[in-house]
Amino acid sequence: MSLLASLRQGAKGFAWFMRGVMGEDAYDKYKAHHEALREAHDESVHDPDAAACDRQVMMTEREFWRDQTDRQDINPQGRCC
Amino acid sequence: MGTKPRTPHDAPKRGEELDRDPLLLPVALDQTTHDAEEAHWTPLKIGIWGGISLLGGLSWVMLAVVRGETVNAIWFVFAAVCTYLIGYRFYSNYIQKHLLHPDDRRATPAEYKADGKDYAATDRRVLFGHHFAAIAGAGPLVGPVLAAQMGYLPGTIWIIVGVVFAGAVQDYMVLFFSMRRGGRSLGQMARDELGKVGGTAALFATLAIMVIIVAILALVVVNALADSPWGVFSVSMTIPIALFMGVYLRFFRPGQVTEISIIGFILLLAAIIGGGMIADTEWGSTFFAVEPLPLAIGIIVYGFVAAILPVWLLLAPRDYLSTFMKIGTIGMLALAIIIVRPEISAPATSEFVNGGGPVVSGTLFPFLFVTIACGALSGFHALIASGTTPKLIEKERQTRFIGYGGMLMESFVAIMALVAALSIDRGIYFAMNSSPALTGGTVEGAVTFVNSLGLTGVNLTPEMLTETAKNVGEETIVSRTGGAPTLSVGLANIMQQVAGGSGMMAFWYHFAIMFEALFILTAVDAGTRVARFMLQDSLGNFFPKFKNTSWRLGAWVTTGIMVAAWGAVLVMGVTDPLGGINTLFPLFGIANQLLAAIALAVCLAIVAKRGLFKYIWVVALPLTFAAVVTIFASFLKIFSTVPAVGYFAQNRAFSKALDEGLTSFGTAKTVEAMEAVVRNTMVQGILSILFVVLAIVVMVTAVQATVRSYKSRDFGTNEDRAVPSQIFAPSGFVATPEEKKLATRWDAQIAQAKLDKAGKTTRR
User: Fold this and answer.
1) Which key words are in the record (chain B) (predicted)?
2) Strand partners, B668
3) Which residue from B464, B591, B628, B738 puts its CA 20 to 30 A from B722's CA?
4) ipTM for the complex?
C-alpha cells in the first residue's frame, strides 16, 4: 500500500516535471498570473498595476498558444551547439 | 500629498528598502541562518562528504595512476560525479558567498516584471530542465569524440576540472548578472560595462562566431548523412513530422505539448525503422544516397526556408521533439553506461600529444582545449544564460543550482560522449575519423593508413571495418569524420548490450544519428534567426528601415545574408581537399572559447565595479586561461610554419606548388583542388585573425574598465533598482531543513488564503 502510494507519487512528480520542462503548463501559469492580478484589483481599485491589467483582456487558451509562437517569431532565442 | 519630501537624510540605506514588515512571513532566510545551516556538520554529513571525496579520489587514481591494460568506464562516471558534487558544494558556494551575494529579499525579473508569458516565475527544478535543454546540444557530444585522439586522460581532466573552474563559473555569473539587469543580453551588458568600442566589438564577434558555429554544426550533419540512404531518409522525415505536429498544435489541440511530442516520437521511431527498410530496396538506396555537396546545398536551402517560416510551423514543434529526445536519450545513455560498464582500452595519453595526429592537428596544448569547447567551457551558453532563463528565475539564490548545476550536467554529457567514443576499437576510431584525403575513402586505404600509424595495440583488419559497417546499416564507415558517426557507433555498441543485441545495432546507430541531427537542425534554424535579428539591428543604425523586424523584404534579405555566410563556410568545408571538418573544427572551438573569453571579460568588469578585488581571481583565472589558449591557438593557426597547423603556411605551400606548375600536391590531386586549398586556407586564416582581434579588443576594454574601477573606487552599478520580493522558494534541488520549515508556513498561508476566499464567495 505504502509502496504503491509512493510509486504513484513518484509518477505524479515525474509527470509534473515533464509537463513543466516541455512547457505544457505555460497557459496555467499565464492564467494564474491574470487571476492574481484581478484579485489584487478587486481588493484595491487604486493599484495602478491591477487597473492596467483590468483593461487588458485575458486571452483564451487557443489565443494564448497562438500568441506564444507568434511572439517567438519576433523574439527568437538561440539553441546551443 | 501627505508625505513630506524626502531629504538625503531619510533616504533608505543600502538594503533598507528591502526590509519587510515583520508581521508578514519572511521571503528569505537571513544570512545567519544560511551560515549556521552550512556550518552545522552532523556526523552523517561528514560521513557522506568523506565518502564522496574518497570515492572521487579513488576514481582519479584508477584513471590517472593505475595503468592496467584497460580501465573501466565506471571510474569516469564516479570521478566526474564526485568532482561535480564537491565543486558544487564548495566552490560554487564560495562564489555565491564572496562574489555574487544573492539576496532573496529582492524580487527577480520574473516577479517584478511578471507578465505570465516571457517573465514568469518557474519552479527551480523545472527551470533546471529548461536551461539544460537549451544549453546542451551537439557540441558536448562531438568535441570529446575528436579529442579522444589524445588518449582518454587529457580530455577527461579538461572536461571535469574545466567545468568546475571555468564553464560553470561563466554560466552562473552571466545568469546572475543578467538576472540583476532584468534579463539583459550579453551584448547589452557588454555595451553597458565596456563602453561603445568594447560593446561593438563584442556584438560583431558574437555575430561572426554564430555564423561559424552554425556552419560547422551543419558540416557535422553533412558528414554523418552523406552517402547514407538510411540516415538521409529518416532525418528528412523529421521535417514532415514536425510540420504535422505544428499544424496539430495550431489547429487541433493547442497546448497539448506532451501528447503531440509522444506522437511525434513514435513517428520518429517509425521513420528510423522505415529508413532501414527503404535503404534495403534498390530504388531507396540510389534515391537517398546523396553526395556531400548536394546534401550541403539541401541544408542551405532548408536553413533559409526554415528561418523564414513562422515559428509555429517548424521550429516550435521540432523544439518539443528535440527536448523530449534530449532528456530521454541522455538519461538512457547514462543508465546504459552504468549497466554495461564498458572496458576502455585506449591509452591514457596517446602517441599524438606532441602533434601529428590525423584527427586534430597540432599539439595537446592548446588544441585539446579548443577541440573540447562545449562540456568544459562554452561561450555560447552565455547567450542562453542572458536570454530566456534569467527571466524565469523565481529567487536569486536559485541561480547557483540552475547556472552552475546546469553546466555540470552538460559536462556529464560530454564525459558520457567521451566514454562512448573510447569504448570502440581504436583502429576503427582512427579509420572513421581520419579524413578521406588520408584514407582514400576505401576500406583497404583506411587499413593501410591506420596500421601505418604504428599505434600500440592497434591491428585493424578490413573485416573489422566491413563488419561494423554492416552492423550499423551503412555502406562504409571509413572517413565518417565529424564525431557524430563515431559517437553513434559507440552508443549503438553500448545500447545493444542492454537491449536488442547486435541485431539492434543498426537501429541504435540511426537513432543516435537522428538524435544529433535533430539538435543540430534546430540550432541551425534558431541560430540563423537570432543572427538575422542581430544583423537587422546593426544595419538599422545605417538604414533605419531594417530596425522594423516585421518588414518582410528586410527579413528575407538579412536571412539570406546570414544563410549565405554560413553556407559559404559549409560548402568550403564540404569541398575542402584537405578533409574539411578536421581543418575547420579548430575554428569552431576557438570561436566558442573566444565568446567565453568575451563573456568572462564582461563578468570581470562587473565584479570590479562591485569592488570585489580580493576575489576577482575567480573570474580572472578562467578568463586568463581561455585567453591564453585561444590567442595561442589562433597565433599558431595564423603564424605556424607547419602546414598541417598554420592556415597561411598551408596557403604558401600550395601557392608555391601552383607557381612551380605542379598539377598535384599532397592530398590535392588536381589544379582545381590545389586552388581550392589556397582559397580555403586564406578564408580560414582571415577568419582566425578577425576573431582574435575582436576578442582582444573586448578583453582590453574589460581590463581597462577593471583598472578604472580599481583606481576611481567608483562602484556604480548598472543593475535594476531593487524591488522587495513577496514570494519564497527554496534555493537548491532539495530544500534545506530551515527552508522546508519556512516553505511549510508559506504553504499553510496560501491554503488559508484560498479557504478565506472560498468562504467569502459562498457568503456572497
Assistant:
1) Cell membrane, Membrane, Transmembrane, Transmembrane helix, Transport
2) B665
3) B738
4) 0.90
Short-list B363, B345, B361, B343, CA closest to B353? B363
For B201-230, give the DSSP string: HHHHHHHHHHHHHHHHHHHHHHHHHTT-HH
Arithmetic mean of pLDDT, B202-226: 92
**Interchain CB distance below 8 Å, B125 and A17:** yes
Name residue, grid cell 552523406.
B226
Count of Cβ atoms closer than 10 Å to residue B22 Cβ: 6
Query: Is some CB atom of chain B closer than 8 A to the CB atom of A24?
Result: yes
DSSP B473: T
Give the count of beta carbons closer than 10 Å to the beta carbon of residue B222: 25
Average pLDDT over residues A63-68: 94
- Identity of the residue numbered B323: T
Spatial separation of the C-alpha atoms in residues A76 and B527, rounded to whole Å: 9
Nearest Cα residue to B600 out of B708, B702, B704 = B702
Is residue B431 included in any domain, yes or no? yes
Predicted pLDDT at B6: 40
Give the Cβ contact number of residue B463 at 10 Å.
10
A80 touching B, CB under 8 A? yes
Nearest by CB: B257 against A24, A73, A76: A24
Is residue B7 pLDDT above 80, yes or no? no
In a domain, B764, yes or no: no
Pick from B374, B344, B350: nearest CA to B363: B350
**Angstroms from B308 CA to nearest CA on chain A:** 9
Q: Domain span at residue B212?
A: 41-227+290-712
A10 in contact with chain B, both atoms CB, cutoff 8 A: no
Task: Confirm whether B728 is domain-assigned.
Answer: no
Q: Can you give the pLDDT at residue B3?
A: 42
**CA triple B230-B234-B239, angle to 5 deg:** 150
Q: In B248-342, which ranges are continuous DSSP H helix?
A: 257-280, 282-287, 292-308, 315-340
pLDDT cut 90: percent of chain B above it:
84
CB contact burial B622-642 (16+ within 10 A = b; e otherwise): bbebbbebbbebbebbbebee
Using CB atoms, which residue from B117, B254, B522 is nearest to A30? B117
> What's the confidence (pLDDT) of residue B241?
97
Q: What is the mean pLDDT of chain B?
A: 92
List, for residues B102-153, the tens digit of each pLDDT value.
999 999 999 999 999 999 999 999 999 999 999 998 889 999 999 999 999 9
Q: What is the CATH number of the domain that holds B307?
A: 1.20.1740.10
pLDDT at B44: 96
Interface test with A, best of B113, B122, B322, B516 (most A CBs within 10 A): B122
Of A19, A30, A80, the CB nearest to B137: A80
Residues 6+ apart with CB under 8 A from B321: B238, B241, B242, B245, B261, B264, B265, B268, B518
Query: Residue B761 pLDDT > 80, yes or no?
Result: no
For residue B620, being part of any structural domain is answered with: yes
Say what the pLDDT of residue A79 is: 78
C-alpha cell at B424: 570502440
pLDDT interval class at B9 (50, 70, 90) = very low
Weakest-pLDDT range from B387-396, B450-459, B755-764: B755-764
**Residues from chain A contacting residue B115 (CB–CB below 8 Å):** 33
Task: Write down the pLDDT at residue B644.
Answer: 87
CB within 8 A of B540, min separation 6: which ones? B546, B547
CB contact under 8 A, A32 and B116: yes
Q: What pLDDT, in 10s, does the model give residues A48-63?
A: 555 555 556 889 999 9
- Cβ(B232)–Cβ(B290) below 8 Å: yes
